Input
Amino acid sequence: MNHEAQSTPTRTAVPSQPGESPSAEGESTRLVWIDALRSLSIFAVILLHSAAPLLLRFGDEEASGSAEWWIGNLYDSSVRWSVPIFVMVSGALLLGRAQREGLGEFFRRRLSRVAIPFLAWSVLYFQWQIWFWDSDQSYGELLPMLVREPVAYHLWFVYMLLGLYFLAPLLGAIFAVDRWRLPIYAVGLWLFWAGLLPLLGRLLEIETWYSPDRDNSPLMLVGYFILGFLLRDVPMTRTFRLASPLVFLASVAATAGLTFWLTRAAGGEYQPLFYEYYGLNVVLMAVAVFFLGAGLPGLQEADGDTRRARFWRFLSDRAFGVYLVHVLILDLLKEGTLGWRLDHLTFHPAVSVPLLAVVVFVASLILVLFLERIPLIRRVLL
Output
């Protein structure tokens, strides 16, 4: 995710988008907090995927209140900010560059670094389903599937990201005319359309002509893109620093509690309404995490050469690759293909879930480092 130079001296940064290095023109610097947020978001996604089976395996009212179910619910609720933060960090700085670059340059620099790996990994995951999961699909089905749906469940994020890329020049041009009023209006419109209307539709069965019907599309998450741009220059006052952790904890508690309430009301059938990324509770959670990252004094270095800065830069530069490859590692560990099995129930779930996430993250990172050393593979896959 590209990161543009910000106007505030203490928060000026442009770390790279997936596969993209910082600007060679020297027009921008990197901030540690941006690198840290992107890296932590990747780990949060892996933790989410590690915890989700604890919720999906139950289907009756009694089991939905069990300790295992609550462990999955709390882990999952605590990382709903993962994808929104990805999008916020991208929008915070990508929209600024979209205002300055021509359309040709803008798309050439980004699509070549995302579209090619996306297509390559789609083919790889298609073959993975045939080989590893004994799927009877033929390659004649690949192209229609690419148009219709992701080949692997986590690749939906790349569809969404590409859609935001196509929106970025238009949004950048609009917001260049009005830095505050139009972005605030756009976020308000998004909160009503993508946040409130689905809630009314599912809780109160109130459907309108404008109610959206496709979750996690670019239009359903574009508000985070705009929010990142809107909030990037907000001064990190003492009030924000004190309020952010409280808002985060309250949002996690509300997400977990409301998910339990809805699931019990449905007789134990898992109800993920309040897990949706565009929900108002998740919006508050993501904004709180964004401010937490931007406000931590230890993460405010720009172009730093400290051990902390190098660590987060190292992880951030490989975050997109880790995201693309981590499902392969999850499959191998859960099926015991490597000679030992590790899943959410190998030990007590409170331990197994984070342990699985850490092992998958580290193993994925090692694989990415290996792939980086092969020039052709690095250009195609990463």
